Amino acid sequence: MLPLLRLTLFIDRLNRAVYRGVCWLSLAMVLIGAFNALARYGDKYLPVRLSSNGWIELQWYFFSLVFLLAAPFAVRLDSHVRVDVLYGRLGTRGKAWIDLIGTLVFLLPFCVFGVWYALPSALSSLDIREVSPDPGGLTRWPIKLVVPVAFVLLTLQGFAEVTRRGLFLSRKITATQAGLENRESGETS
């Protein structure tokens, strides 16, 4: 039991570290977006062209990175969108059952499909050193490689959540040890 719990804590720390890096990308994305807007406006009045397709694509890439790489930690914090009218009325054990079944039936198969579908495209893009077809655009293969990596991180977090729920439901750990309490604060044990 203890090695599994240690593994879940390692996965949590990994995804938290990725998330913290992604927070800085959010700031960069906003600053680049503001620059893009000002540059497009300024291009009308300045003799030098400030805007480019590269800046616009960089903003898109950062948004993609934020969305893809923050998802695993959002699962850990239970911050993802939930469409379940009964969940809020259940006790801790009932919620643990729904989380366990939902992760096993929906999240993990989705992640496996995501890796299976994205990996060949990413490797092909890397193989041909794909670049944007737009003038001044960026290299495409690095962002395409992030997609299967993000799905692997999400799979790992799904595994950690299943492990925690299983240990909690088998009464080997408490709700607090399972991290089922106070997840909104972002602090997990």
Largest sheet: none
The amount of helix comes to 55-70%
Rg (C-alpha, Å)? 20 Å
Structural class: mainly alpha
Gross morphology is elongated
Element-level helix/strand string = HHHH
Separation, N- and C-terminal Cα atoms: 16 Å
Number of distinct helices: 4
Percent range for β-strand residues = under 5%
Uncertain segments of ≥5 residues (pLDDT<50)? 184-189
Mean pLDDT: 89
Q: What count of structural domains?
A: 1
Number of strands: 0
Characterise this structure.
Helix 1 packs antiparallel against helix 2 (53-77) and helix 1 (2-42) runs antiparallel to helix 4. The chain contains four helices and no strands. The longest helix is centred in the first third of the chain and has 41 residues, at 2-42. The chain has helices at 2-42, 53-77, 92-128, 141-169. By secondary structure, it is mainly α. Helices cover 70% and strands 0% of the residues. Mean pLDDT is 89; it is low at 184-189. It has one domain. It is elongated and about 70 Å long.
Top keywords for this entry?
189 residues; mainly alpha
Short description:
The chain has 189 residues and is mostly helical. Helices cover 70% and strands 0% of the residues.
